[in-house]
Design brief:
Layout: H1 2-14, H2 16-30, E1 46-49, E2 59-62, E3 77-83, E4 88-93, E5 101-105, E6 109-114, E7 120-130, E8 137-142, H3 145-156, E9 160-165, E10 173-178, E11 181-184, H4 190-208, E12 209-219, H5 224-234, E13 239-246, E14 252-254, E15 257-259, E16 261-268, E17 300-301, E18 321-324, E19 329-333, E20 354-356, H6 372-381, E21 384-390, E22 395-400, H7 403-410, E23 414-419, E24 426-430, E25 441-442, H8 450-461, H9 473-484, E26 491-494, H10 501-513, E27 518-523, H11 529-537, H12 545-548, H13 552-566, E28 594-603, H14 605-609, H15 614-624, E29 640-642, E30 646-649, H16 655-664, E31 670-674, H17 678-687, E32 693-697, H18 699-708
Parallel strand pairs: 8-27, 8-28, 9-12, 9-26, 13-25, 26-27, 30-31, 31-32
Antiparallel strand pairs: 1-6, 2-3, 2-6, 3-4, 4-5, 7-28, 10-11, 12-16, 13-16, 14-15, 17-22, 18-19, 18-20, 21-22, 23-24, 29-30
């Protein structure tokens, strides 16, 4: 609809009366919002790429002069030619009714990529931290996340186990950009732009997930309702559940009430399997591990409560239960007592057993939760236990193993450890680690975003570096644990990485169970909005080194991930304090993990197909092979090379020694074969070991991005 407003503005310029009439009709129609939502799915989106060199044919914008804080020319121009000697470019205005050209210095131009454009991405390494031996590398990518997601369709399509994202909350506080402009509270299309922005990314994220994968999206009250609808629409076939997380127990006053929570949507793929944890994140009683190290499930109360809990509601479930009050042994259930007959509360037998009737808290007659035959069967198996005597009601309490828990015994999740020699009651425990189903409301001290988000990040970065509203490290850890606990080699993606909490949480999970999980974190290098004016007044622009060093990725994400691994701040000082909860140890110990940092690049298909961009394509080949071990960064002079996880054949005439080397190597997953001849590719592929996947370069790369863009 913003396109319509642009057209109406043009109409007004040519015919004021016609333009005003169109404007009135448009406003009437646009006020009729279905579900209160004005969703511009096809609103254009573009991003400026200040680090990208100017090439002929590029779309560009002309930047304001240095030192200016004014908004620059937002029109798009196309580079018709480049005058290298003069360091300038000849531009032609795009979409103009009449031709308009100008010559502008290259330094005053910035490349613009529209999201409908096909991109051919690459990666340039900007550093690494290696302390994890042969473990896979965690990856941090500095780039526009939509384009980075497209890059990952080549390396990880259908291979990601979990995606955790904390997108901009669209609070109206200019906390995110759309088409290079901050979206403020006064933007009437604020929600529409946010939905369009999110939908584009979610659709690609869905392609990256395994069928057994799970997407987790955190959000607050500003977009939670709209996000829920968008997820239902976008993720067909997924099971979606909303979780409420207490992140600030002190509360923040908003409106009439004090807000303490935010939300997380768990979107489980069609084949997802979750892993129960040691903590349900809400209660403190269910399945609590005892002193012997075993976790026990919570048995269900036998006395019916809630609806249909009176005697008259289920006549056949009002019956006496015979117990021995001295030995606490349950003997059996007697026959039910028909309506109209009064129970005898002093009923005993010759063995000293007494009859117990179902009496509710209000002293009226109730009913039991199971019938006579089911009860007696449960008693024989030891699945009913006698509780305490209630003097007020003159009755005893009972608990039993619910049908769901009995199924867990059948499938091996629960086991009967022993039976009491007197009462016969079974001691039922979880097999292996303590496990409980996580609840949909989380209330834990460790999820406090102030203490374990803001304060913790500040401790890692030092020197006053700050990131607005980082997640609690332990909240992210708890969210991921549900998904990847039983997946020691899981791949976890975060394409709104911000401060790097996801990578940090994955490292903690690995330490707890010896896992080799790897994270892929994507963030841009945007400088905080409140700092940009001063930088522009100082004559700086995006792309300048002194500007870029203050961006999110270079100033926050990369240093935080490096600090987590080394245990030292960016200044080299040991980080003080200990980690808390589950795995407690000095922060300064760091982690035995590896990480590498990259910046996204934009290549041309011609340079790729002619082997001129190999050094920038090489990291993608390494990522696709699992991001572990050494990497082939240059075209090998011998025509082939074998790394730890993959091999490269760039001269098909050297296929025989290449195949022999692959047969001797262990752990190689992929063989990249550079050839334009499909017949030779097929012939070489047939000669490879069965465990190695042949991939044709550069056909697979170029085709992937054409396909991803719908071409």
């Amino acid at each position: 609809m913003s396109r319509l407003t642009d057209l109406i503005a043009k109409a007004k310029a040519k015919d004021a009366a016609l333009g005003a009439e169109l404007d009135r009709e448009f406003k009437m129609l646009s006020s009729r919002l279905p579900f209160g939502l004005n969703f511009e799915r096809h609103s254009p989106e573009a991003v400026e790429l200040p680090l990208r060199p100017i090439r002929k044919g590029d779309k560009v914008r002309v930047l304001p002069e240095r030192g200016s804080t004014k908004k620059g020319d937002q029109r798009l121009w196309q580079v018709k030619s480049i005058q290298r000697a003069k360091k300038s470019a000849v531009l032609e205005l795009l979409g103009a009714e009449e031709s308009e050209t100008q010559t502008v210095a290259l330094d005053d131009l910035v490349v613009v990529a529209e999201f409908r454009d096909t991109i051919y991405p690459g990666l340039v390494s900007t550093g690494k931290v290696l302390r994890g031996g042969d473990k896979p590398c965690h990856t941090v990518i500095n780039g526009e996340n939509y384009h980075a997601l497209k890059a990952l369709t080549y390396t990880h399509r259908g291979n990601v186990d979990a995606i955790y994202i904390d997108p901009p909350y669209n609070s109206g506080a200019s906390d995110w950009k759309y088409n290079n402009n901050y979206v403020g509270e006064d933007d009437i299309y604020r929600h529409s732009k946010w939905l369009a922005f999110m939908e584009r990314r979610l659709l690609i994220a869905k392609e990256l997930l395994k069928p057994s994968g799970t997407l987790i999206v955190t959000i607050d009250e500003h977009e939670v309702r709209r996000l829920g609808l968008l997820l239902e629409q976008t993720l067909e076939g997924f099971t979606i559940q909303q979780v409420t997380i207490v992140i600030n127990p002190k509360g923040v006053t908003q409106g009439y009430l004090s807000r303490v929570e935010e939300y997380a949507f768990f979107c489980f793929g069609p084949e997802s399997k979750i892993f129960a944890g040691d903590d349900d994140l809400l209660t403190t009683t269910d399945s609590k591990a005892s002193d012997d190290g075993h976790a026990r499930p919570r048995w269900k109360g036998l006395l019916r409560s809630g609806d249909e809990a009176e005697r008259k509601d289920r006549e056949q479930m009002f019956y006496p239960i015979w117990i021995n009050p001295k030995t606490k042994k349950i003997v059996k259930a007697g026959q039910y007592l028909p309506l109209g007959q009064e129970p005898d509360f002093n009923l005993t037998d010759s063995d000293g057993n007494v009859a117990v009737w179902p009496v509710r808290k209000n002293l009226t007659l109730g009913r039991w939760g199971v019938g006579v035959s089911t009860f007696n069967d449960l008693v024989k198996k030891g699945f009913v236990a006698l509780g305490a005597y209630d003097k007020k009601r003159k009755t005893w309490g009972f608990s039993y193993l619910s049908e769901q828990l009995r199924k867990e015994i059948e499938n091996g999740t629960l086991v009967v450890l022993a039976r009491d020699p007197v009462t016969g009651v079974a001691d039922v425990v979880y097999d292996g680690a303590a496990t409980r189903k996580v609840r949909t409301v989380w209330h834990r001290t460790k999820h406090d975003a102030g203490a374990y988000g803001t304060d913790l990040v500040g401790k890692f970065l030092g020197n006053g570096r700050a990131f607005p509203f980082p997640k609690s490290l332990y909240a992210v850890e708890d969210a991921l644990r549900i998904i990847v606990r039983g997946k020691p080699d899981a791949v976890i993606l975060d394409f709104f990485s911000g401060s790097g909490s996801t990578a940090h949480a994955v490292m903690r999970l690995n330490r707890q169970d010896g896992g080799r999980r790897q994270s892929i974190c994507v963030t841009n290098n945007e400088v905080r909005s409140d700092e940009q004016a001063a930088l522009r007044q100082a004559g700086l622009r995006p792309g300048d080194p002194d500007w870029e060093r203050l961006g999110i990725c270079d100033y926050i994400t990369k240093p935080r991930v490096a600090a987590a691994i080394t245990g030292n701040t960016p200044d080299g000082q040991p980080i003080k304090g200990d980690y808390k909860f589950i795995d407690e140890f000095p922060i300064a110990e760091g982690f035995e993990e590896n990480a590498e940092f990259f910046t996204l690049t934009y290549e041309t298909p011609l340079s790729v197909s002619h082997n001129l961009a190999f050094s920038r394509i090489a990291p993608l080949l390494w990522l696709r092979a699992g991001a572990r071990g050494n990497r082939i960064d240059k075209l090998p002079a011998d025509g082939w090379a074998v790394a730890d996880a993959y091999g490269l054949l760039n001269d098909v005439d050297a296929a025989t020694p290449f195949i022999k080397a692959l047969a001797k190597a262990g752990g190689v997953r992929i063989a990249y074969i550079v050839t334009d001849d499909d017949r030779r590719f097929q012939a070489i592929g047939k000669r490879l070991p069965d465990s190695i996947e042949p991939v044709r370069l550069y056909e697979s790369y170029l085709t992937n991005f054409s396909f991803t863009n719908g071409e």
